Every structure is written in structure tokens, then in C-alpha cells.
Amino acid sequence: MGAKKSPLSDKNPKSGTPEKTPDRAKLQKVFSQAELEARLLQVLEKQLEQGFTCGELPKKCGLDWRRGLAAKLGAKKPEAGSQDVQSFVYDLWRRGLVFSEPPGKGKRSCRFWSMTAAKAHFPLAFPSSAAQISEQGALSVDRLKSAYDKFVPQHLGGFVPIYKVRRELEAFKEEFDTLLRSLNERDEPLLELLGGDPQKFSDDQKNDSFRRGDHLFLRMRWRET
Amino acid sequence: MRSKSPDLPFDPFAARAVGDPWRSPEPDIATVNAQPFGTIIQLLGQIDKTPNLSALVLGEAGSGKTHLIKRLMTAQGTSLIFVYVHPMKNPVTMFSNLLERVMTNLDCSPMGLDAFFGCTQLDLIVANVIIAALEENLKGGQVKIPPQSLKALKANPVKIFQQQKNMAKWAKILSKTEEFLALKLPKDLISKMVLKLLFHYLDDSKRTIVQYLLSGYPPDEDDAKALGIKFHEIDLTIEAQEERSKQILKAIGRMLRFYRPMILCFDQLENLDTTALISSFGKLISEIVNEVDNILPIAFMRPDTLESGFSEENLDKAARDRLTLRVIPLDGCNLEQALDIVKARLDWAFEGSSQARPNPYYPFQEEVLRKEILKDGNTPRMVLTTASKLMGHKFVPEDPVAIVTKCFHSEREQLLATANKEPFAKDTIVEALHLYFGNLKNNPEYEIIHFGQDKNIDLRLEIKRLKNKTDKRRLDIAVETSSHGKTLIRNLGNLVTRIEGGTTDVAIFLRDANNPIPPGPNKMPKTVEQLKRFEDRGGTKLYLDYSQLADLYALVYTRNKIPPGDLSYVSNDRGDRKVVSMADFASFLTDRFESPFLADIQKKLLTGKTTRSKPPPEITPERGGEIVSGIIEVLDRPPYKFKLEQIASHLQKKGAGQITLDQLATVISRHNNVIGYYAVTPPIYFLK
User: Fold this and answer.
1) Do A189 and B375 touch (CB under 8 A)?
2) Which of A157, A189, A213 comes nearest B334 by C-beta?
3) What's the confidence (pLDDT) of residue B68?
4) Is B608 helix (H, G, I), strand (E, B) or coil?
5) Residue-wise over B468-479: b if at least 16 C-beta within 10 A, else e?
6) Dihedral sign of CA atoms A112, A113, A119, A122 in order
7) What pLDDT digit, counting tens, does each position of B529-550 carry?
8) For B659-672, how does the pLDDT look when each residue is reduced to its tens digit (9 = 90+)?
9) Which residues on B lie below 8 Å from A188 (Cβ)?
10) If you average pLDDT over residues B111-129, what whole number do you get?
């Protein structure tokens, strides 16, 4: 996009001359995915104080890295563009290999840190024990299903009271409700939400159940597939 | 309630629980709860090999329990004998009550069997037993039947009854069948009696007495003589009758191996609201599973009911294990099933209408339905409620007591209009009496001192007027179904003793108007004498006709819908619904329920006087014919579906004279071959 057209580029058939081809081949090293990742992480590890933005990172990684990324992606341009770099870094972040510091405090874009540096600078974002990770980690379908399954033997037919599962997971209310909704509000629901008899539940139990508009749902049941 | 769309003859989405499946016409969607249905059919298929089976269907209110029952009922055409059991409310007579329900259901024509139109489920059992015997005799060379004839008989078993015209031949067939069964079944007295009675059932003139005896009641000397069964002194205690009922059920079960298995659908079990009832029910299920062949009991309840009422504390472990042998949970709908429900309901409403529909979902747009129909929830009832909301009318919050009132009137009208009359069921009557008189506790003028029943009396009530505390009044009611002279004399004697001992102010002997004392001239002289003694001492004999019975049954059936959450009302202007409570039912009883017959007993209790209201004159067959022609004329006009009041109004405009709604419903019940009704609230009548 914003990258200047390289004078060495042979992508445009109207430009360049055949005799320059051996030089290009010499310059364009083929990087594997692992090598690309290793170089970027190495660069991040060296910057322990500020982290890098997506604009700074490719410059620090070097021309050969940028060209290597472009070659790996099959890009028409000789060097990877900023969007290519962003996608590459996003993938590392998604896999938990880099830390992303959101914009704020005068910083207009995300800054990326090595995980080691981030742990020192952002301790609150890194709980110390595995138990804490389990408690505060994102609520997943698997965790919900495991918690639900735990109560199935006590509730014939699998009609488990919602409050029991909610209390077992100790999840944030919104997060839990959103997950229930997402599993129920489908053309082919995975999870049934059922009314039940409110008189058979205490106020506390009702509060820990699930509401949609004026409807109170007291039990859930995983549909057999 | 909101007004219904002018395009629709009636609101097909009106939230209404299905109710008694024998009387419910709502369309059924086969894909909804297809798996639970398949599981039950599978269990039935294996019951001859693994006989100790039961099933428990669990589902929330509105998840389609009664629809599933209805689907089982329509499966009678192919694979089963269907029996629907209302909640039983007497813990000491569970087997007798069950047998009464079994006999009432067996006396109904099976649904979906057009080839056998007019015959009952019991006719088919008898016919198949006879054909099984013929087949066996054919193998042994004792009879000769051309193969084509046997094939034709097996295709339409009731054809065997045509042989009744030739008395000698028929007697031989029956005797061969008896011999055949003697080899196959145990030789106990009850099995022999059941078999004899089943053969007598084929004689229309004896059906009532056969049904009565097969319900476990003992025969008196006259009955025994008329039916050719051996009369002997029988233990008349309740325990003995329970045992007899169980043995009869076992004998019927054994005969089913020559035909098809039977399912007993126990619905609305939320109404078993005492530990004694739950425990007795558990025992009943255990005994059926352990001792009765070819009969699959299926209980239907909400998960909350299982976990609270039928918990391990209330039910012994063995009984609970039997009850929960096979748990079948009900599923909600996916999008396609929800759309199928909406489409089927619309087809139902527009059936027979000449109105053009631009698309199958008219008046909805399909894309709107797809987006919205599962928004509030995915049980079938929630789908209907959402469809009702999507009709786009303005909702007005409803009065729950008015909903109870409508339900009562609808139940009552259906009882009168149905072709299959409900029998005189003692426990249902007693329950209605308890509901009505128990509600006096809400009357600020009286204080109830004693309310209950004992071994001899079905309702004992003692009240005190609050204005004058010395003025105490006592009522005793005995509901009598027995036709056995000895029992009648003893029970009347109990009432006489109470009157003579001054322990009662009002003693009432209630009996079916179709079963008077004496049953015929010069019959039961000793019982007649005892009845006279009772009346001479101030006792009151009341014969209940079917319209009075309908008051009582409709009251109980309406009440039975409340604990399972089957009655609901619009609670706000967004169309959301809430379930009707027992407090709403009590308000209905206090302020809206009217039964001249019960009001009369109450008046007698309070004042010692009665006011006999004159019943409307009977409709003669000739007038009935005229009326039915008028009804057909009305129903043959657009929109081809009318409420009873609309029919009455049309008839009056035509100068048909004075006719009450009860009479109109009764006339319709006699012409059910041409006039049908949808069991919505209120019922809608149409030409078949």
C-alpha cells in the first residue's frame, strides 16, 4: 500500500531488465514460518521497555524479513505491506505468543511486547497461579458442558437447575448469560432453556437462574445430538 | 384478550393446554418429539420378551407431553391399545380406579381405524382372541376354514362377529375359544370370569353391566344369573376389591398377547399432592411392572414434580426404581419444527375455508417468522405464544379468574357434546364435592369445624355460623356406585344410623341417574326397603344426570390443569403469559362457579330447605331431528366453523324455538358422525 515500489522489483513486466535477475534471487531469501516468527520474537525480546507498534516492527525485523514474509504470502509487492505485518502479528497474539497493549495514555496504536517483558510491565494481566487462570479464564462451551455434566446424575433426564451450573462455574453473570444465549438462540439449539416451577426455587436460586425479557428460565438441558 | 385476526375463523395460537387427548383436535407435528415417541414404540415392541418395563416421560409445561400422548393414541391403528388415566385421587382405591379408566377407554373406538369404524378397543381384543383360537384349532385340524377366509378375518377381525347371526355356530366358536384359552391362561376364577364377561360384552344390551363388573365391582345374584357366571359370596371390603381389580387387569393383560400390548398413560401427575397418593401410585406402578403382562405404564410429569413430589423421601426405593426404569426427556423445537407447528396451526384454522392464502404462512411473512419464532423460547407452547404475539395485535392483560371460568365452561361443553360419555366415576365426584365444600373456608360467614371423609362417608362437613356460634350444621354425603344389594343396604344403613343417632343434619345419598334403585320392577326388594327407611327418616336421595355430572367433572378437570402449569393468561400488554394459580381457582369457585345442584345441597345444609329447580323438558327424537337439520344448515355456511352460542342464535332467528346450550350440545353428541368440534376454548363446531 504505502510501501514504495522497489527499484529491484520484477513484478511489473514493463520495468527492470533481465540481467538484474541473478541479484534479485540472491537478495530474496526464502523464510519459513518458524524463522519469521523467531526473528520477530527476538526483536521484541530486545525491546523490554516500550514494545513496538506494527509500523515499527517490520523495520526492526529487517528488509530480508519483510521480503521473506511477502514471498511466503505470495504478495505481488517485493516487501510485505503493513496489513500483512498486522495479520502476522495478530496471529501471534491470538496464539498467546505476544502481548498486546491497547492504545491509550497518548499512544494511538497498539504496542506489542514479548510475553516476558509484558509480565514485568503488566502484572495484573498475568495471574500468578493455575487456579486463578481457571477462575478468570474465558468461559468456554467445554467448561459449561463439564459443569453441567457434573449435575446430570442428580437430575434425571438432564434437566439441571441453571443456578447450580452458574454457581459451579463462578463466571461473570454477563459472560454466563451470553454463553447460554448463544447456545440456545440458534436455528438448531444446542441447549434447552426451560421454565420450571418458580415455587420450587428460592429467591436466591431464581436470581442465579436466567432471564430473557420477562421470562424466567430455571433449568437447562443439553440436547442429545 | 386481544381481538383475533379478521382473516382467521378462530385463533389457532390461543395458548391452551391440550387436555384430554380423546377430545383434542389440535394438529400434531410428527417431527416434534419424534425420538421420545420412537423410544416408547420400541419399548412396546420388546414388552413380550422383557415384560418388566415402564417409562417416565419428563418435560416442562408446554413441552408437548399431552401431544405425545395424543400421538400414541393415534398409533392405536398400528401398534397398541391406548388408555389415558386422569390423576387418581384416592390412595386406597388406585387399582379399582385404574380399572374403571381402562374399561372406559377400552369402550372407545380406536382412532385411525376407519376399517373398524364403530367397534371399540375391547371388541378388537375379543375378536383377535377368537381368531387366535380359530387359527390354533385350524392347525390341530379341529376346524376347517378356507385360507382366504382366515386372511380376510385377520385383516378385519371384527368380521368374526358376523357369525353371531348363526347362534349354534357362534356358541361353538366361543366354546372352542374357551378351550383354547384354558390351555394358555391360568385356570383361576377371575380369568374364567373375565373371559365370560368379554364374550357377553359383544351383546350391546349387556355392555353396561359387563363394564361395571370388569371394573372390579362384584356381581349381585341377578347379574350373575343374567350373565351365566357363578355367584358366590364375595368379600366386599375395599382391600378385596383392590385385589380383584388387580387380578382382572392381569387377566386382561394375558389376553393381550393374542392382539397388541396396551399403554397406560398417567398424565398430570402434579395433582398427586399428598405423600399417601404418591406412595400408592408408586406401589401401583411397581405392581403393574412386576405382575401384569403386556401392559406398559408410562408416567408423564415435570422434572420439578419428580424431584420434589416423587423424591426418594416420599417414595420407597423399589417403587422409584420401577418408575424411573426408563426416563424419556422431551426436546424443544428447532427452527424447522417451529415453522411446521405454525404452518399446521394455520392450515387447521383455514381448513374448509374458501379464503385464498398467498403463502402457507399467511398472515405471516416467512422471513419474519424465521427470524423471530424462537426468540422467546423453543418449547412448542412458547412457539405458539410467540406466533400469537407476531400476529401484531394489541394485547390486553387478562384476568386469570376469567381464564379459569372459560376453561371450566369449555370442559363442560365438551363433556356434553362428546359422543363418548364419561361414566359415573365415584372418585372424581368425591373430589369435586371436596373442592366445592372445602372452599367454604373462604366464606367469611362460616367457620369449618370438620372437613373430611371416612370409611363409610365420602364427605363429612361440620360448620358453624360466625354470627351465632351455637348454630352448628353437619352434612354427610355418600356417593354410591355399587349395584350389589348387600353393599347398598350396608351403606344406606350407615346413613340411617347417623340420622337416628342425631349426628348429622343433612344426609345425602348420591347415585347415577342411569342406575336407579330398583333397576327394574320388583328388583332388589330389600334394598328398596332400606332406601325407603332412609328417606322416611329425612335422608335425601339424589340422582345425578349427565349435565350435573358435567358440572362436577369439568370442575375437577379444570383444577387438574393448574398444578402442571397448563392454564395461563396474558399478563401484560406485550403478550407475555403467566400460569394460573390455585388462588385464582379458589376465587373462581367463590365468585364464578355455578352449579344449581351443589348450591341446592349447600342451601339445605345452611337452611334445612331446598329449592328444586325444574329441569328443562327433554328433547323428543323428532325435535332432535329438526334441530340437527338446523345445525347442519348453519354449519354448511361460510366460515363453516361456529361456536355453540352462534349456532343457537342462528337457530333462534330461524324460529327453532327455545333451546338451551346444554340441550344443543347434547343433540350434537348424538350426531357425532356428522358434526365434529375442535376442543379450543370455547369449542368450535364444524361439519365432518
Assistant:
1) no
2) A189
3) 92
4) coil
5) eeeeebbbbbbb
6) negative
7) 999 999 999 999 999 999 999 9
8) 888 888 888 888 87
9) 334-335
10) 77
pLDDT band at B416, cuts 50/70/90?
Answer: very high
Name, of B84-88, B564-568, B623-627, the range with top average pLDDT: B84-88
- B572 CB within 8 Å of a chain A CB: yes
Distances (CA, A) of B94 to B198, B282, B313, B354: 23, 10, 21, 50
The mean of the pLDDT values for chain B is: 85
Contact B339, B370 (CB under 8 A): yes
- Length in residues, chain B: 688
Q: Backbone dihedral region of B410: left (phi > 0), alpha (psi from -120 to 50 degrees) or beta? A: alpha
Which positions in chain A touch B334 (Cβ < 8 Å)? Answer: 187-189
Cα B14 from Cα B412, distance rounded (Å): 19
Task: Provide the 8-state DSSP code for B234.
Answer: -
Does A206 contact B at CB distance below 8 Å?
no
Does a cis peptide bond (omega within 30 degrees of 0) precede residue B682? yes
Amino acid letter, residue B317 = K
* Interchain CB contact of A211 with B (< 8 Å): no
C-alpha distance from B104 to closest chain A C-alpha (Å): 32
Write down the pLDDT at residue B98.
94
What does the alpha-carbon distance between residue B532 and residue B540 come to, in Å, rounded to a whole number?
Answer: 10
For residue B489, the tally of other CB atoms under 10 A from its CB is 17
Which of B35, B268, B302, B304 to probe by mutation at the A interface, max A CB count within 10 Å? Answer: B304
Count of A-B CB contacts under 8 Å: 78
Contacts of B246 (CB under 8 A, 6+ apart): B95, B287, B291, B292
Concatenate the DSSP letters of all residues of B479-529 into one string.
Answer: EE----HHHHHHHHHHHHHHHHTT--SEEEEEEETTS-SSSSTT--HHHHH
Residue whose C-alpha cell is 360448620: B463
Asked if pLDDT for residue A2 goes beyond 60, the answer is no
Cβ atoms < 10 Å from Cβ of B651: 19
Residues 124-163 of B with CB under 8 A from A: none
Contact residues on chain A for B574, CB-CB shorter than 8 A: 213-214
CA B53 to chain centre: 24
Give the DSSP per-residue string, B375-437.
SS--SHHHHHHHHHHHT-PPP-PPPHHHHHHHHHHHHHHHHHH-SSPPP--HHHHHHHHHHHH
Nearest Cβ partner for B335 among A187, A215, A217: A187
Q: Quick: pLDDT tens for B597-634.
A: 899 898 888 877 766 566 667 778 788 888 888 888 88
Q: Give the residue with greater pLDDT, B468 vs A215.
A: A215
Which amino acid, B621? P
> Rounded distance, CA B149 to CA B216, Å?
37
Contact B422, B34 (CB under 8 A): no
Contact between residue B310 and residue B301 where contact means Cβ atoms under 8 Å apart: yes
Cβ distance B377 to A219 less than 8 Å, yes or no, reads no
Q: Copy the grid coordinates of residue B217.
A: 365391582
Residue numbers in B near A181 (CB within 8 A): none
* CA–CA distance, B433 with B427 (Å, rounded to integer): 10
- Contact of B397 with chain A, judged by CB distance below 8 Å, is answered with no
Highest mean pLDDT among A30-39, B269-278, B484-493: B269-278
Segment B78-94 shows an average pLDDT of 88
CB atoms within 10 A of CB B309: 23
Please report, to the nearest 10 degrees, the dihedral formed by the alpha carbons of residues B39, B40, B45, B49 taken in order. 90
Asked if omega into B363 is within 30° of 0 (cis), the reply is yes
